[in-house]
Structure prediction request, 166 residues.
Amino acid sequence: MLVVAGCLGGLVSAGTAWLHLLPMSENHLALAYAGAYLLLGVALSGVRLGRKTYLVDLANADNRSAYVALRNTVIGVLLLAGGLLASLFSLFIGTAGVVAVLAAGAFAGGFYALRLPEVEAAYSNPKMSLKVSEKSQLAFIRSKIDSKSECLAFCRRLAASLSLIA
Prediction:
């Protein structure tokens, strides 16, 4: 997932960087940018899903929350730093140049994902599932049941409030 989504993001970004060179009317250019935006959203969703799945599968029940917290913090800092650098670079190499640099970064990330070792979910690996206690499994199931009942209660309240509006 990470490889395909990263390479898709790189291809779409590279194509977007070259769009301004094509002889197109403004209407056609707007449609091309809209399509590129849609494809970049798909690629971003794929990268986020792949990253989340990889780290959750890598961690066991004891350190999963620490991995997720660290992942969110690192990604947040990288997004802020990347936005700052992209805005500074745009002063020197222009917007198309920045998009081309971001395309190179997407390709690099996609190809780097090929080097990541395979991981399996803790519950699918018998050696690791012994580390997960029965008590934590029951707590996990209870939390899902509680969240379902909370979700149903929220949906009922929402439906009631929508019927008052209508």
